[in-house]
Amino acid sequence: MRLDPKDLDLWIKGGHSFTAIDLRQKEQRDEMPIIGIDHIVADERNLPISDKDVVLICQYGLVTEGLIIEKGLSDAYSLSGGVESWNTFLLDKIDMSHWSRQIILEEIGVEGQRKLMNSRVGIVGMGGLGCPAAQALIGAGVMKLVIMDGDIVEQSNIHRQVLYGIDDIGSSKVDVAKQKLKKIYGAASIEIIDSYLEADNGASFFRNLDIVIDATDNNASRELIDHFSKEYNVPMIYGGLYRYEGQVSVLNVNGSCGYTDLFPDHGNSKNCSEAGVLGMLPGIIGNIQALEAVKIILGIRPNLIGKLMIYDGMNHKTETIEL
Amino acid sequence: MIKVKLKCFSQVKYALGTGEVILEIEIGATTAELEEMVRDRADGRLDGVGLSVAINQQYVKGDVVLHDGDEVVLIPPVQGG
To answer: In this complex, do B80 and A241 lie within 8 Å of one another by their Cβ atoms?
Structure first.
């Protein structure tokens, strides 16, 4: 059976219980994430059993139609037109007045808003910087977010990592973050990777990203981000914190300065658990990182490409250095 | 002698106990010599901390001769996130 996007939309709005299964290969999933459908990923040779209605999803709806006929899956539905049709349908019917207050800005407009909605942003680290950056980006209408962190929520995180509460202690940060971000804008696609960035998982993370937010808390991870950012030509929005201060820079834009160019010798500087940080600072710096991400996606100038901004929260002074 | 203004951030600020200080240095002194002077003043509190350098809001690489009235920032990378 075929199911049109508008009928699936009615199912979702009516609270109809169903299991959506994305049968595409990882490359296609990365390139075009499904927006607005809670779904699982499976291989067509090993379909999960479900007591609910099953909606099979592929890129154009052809593979799933063929599979239903081939395997005699008479109770399953194929999403007509696949992800291509569904995402177009959803983006076309989205109420753009949701972002009316920023669409009226001449640098954004409807065209810029659509560009934001089609952009794919990665965040490495869902701690003090990652939480506010993700909140701000989802709020701004970025519909494809990939968040990576292998950590769990601890009590000492909560004063600054604004997506988490006491009830989340012990839970996976990316799981909780996804739930909270979905409450801000449910139709957004939030892909979670419950592990730390390593040399062997960086390629699959960076492929098809438009921007990466560096929200980590150590120099080794920043150097890895810098490496993959250069390799895949993905601009890196660097952010770092020290007590009442923060640093932000947009690195690796078409050969511009990178992290290891800026800090060839990072030495043994301290992270938040060693040096301390006031809870508001990550909120300020994480939001500036999100702001720069939006500016880079939309080509808005001036921005922090080729510049390092240092913010001092004690006296609210900034120092901007040309790189 | 010439005077340069050192603007201090993060570890440098806490190591020297000030956000800004005027330093007197020899004519022809370089950024490496200034950094050495600052590390001496920090009395071990900057040991192991890598520092990048900016003069008059411009990042510089290598050892650069300083001039009277220059504003210098020794930039430590900050790890927190």
So the answer is: yes
Q: Give me the amino acid identity at A270.
A: K
Decide if B55 contacts B31 (C-beta within 8 A): yes
Asked whether residue A271 carries a pLDDT value surpassing 80, the answer given is: no
- Does the active-site annotation cover A272? yes
Q: What are the φ/ψ torsions at residue A221 (nearest 5 degrees)? A: -65, -40
Q: Give the DSSP letter string of A67-95.
A: HHHHHT-TTEEEETTHHHHHHHHHHHHS-
Does A318 reach chain B within 8 Å, measured CB to CB? Answer: no
| Token duo for residue B14 | 């806490």
Query: Can you tell me the distance from the alpha carbon of A113 to that of A314, in angstroms, rounded to the nearest whole number?
Result: 35
Interface membership of A216 toward B (CB under 8 Å): yes
Phi-psi region at A299: left, alpha or beta (left = phi > 0; alpha = psi -120 to 50) = left
Mutation test of the interface with chain A: which of B7, B10, B49, B71, choosing the one with the most A Cβ atoms within 10 A?
A: B10
**Within 13 Å, how many C-alpha atoms sit on residue A6's CB side?**
2
Range A64-86 burial, b when 16+ CB lie within 10 A, else e = bbebbeeeebeebbbbbbbbebb
Q: Do A319 and B59 touch (CB under 8 A)?
A: no
Please indicate if any CB of chain B lies within 8 Å of the CB of A238. no
| Closest by Cβ to A269, choosing from B11, B57, B58 | B11
What are the tens digits of pLDDT across the range A121-162? 999 999 999 999 999 999 999 999 999 999 999 999 999 999
**CA proximity to A122, closest of A189, A31, A214:** A214
Which pLDDT tens digit goes with each residue over B11-29? 999 999 999 999 999 999 9
Tell me whether residues B50 and A271 touch, CB distance under 8 A: no
What's the pLDDT at A93?
84
The answer to whether the complex's ipTM is over 0.90 is yes
Q: Do A269 and B76 touch (CB under 8 A)?
A: yes
pTM, full prediction: 0.89
Greatest extent of chain A over all pairs of C-alpha atoms, in Å: 70
Q: Phi/psi class of residue A252: alpha, beta or left (left: φ > 0; alpha: ψ in -120 to 50)?
A: left
Sheet holding A39-41, edge to edge: A2-3, A76-79, A53-57, A18-22, A39-41
Distance from the B20 Cα atom to the nearest Cα atom in chain A, whole angstroms: 12
The alpha carbon of residue A74 is apart from the nearest alpha carbon of chain B, in Å, by: 51
Shortest CB distance from B78 goes to which of A125, A247, A319? A247
**pLDDT at res. A272:** 66
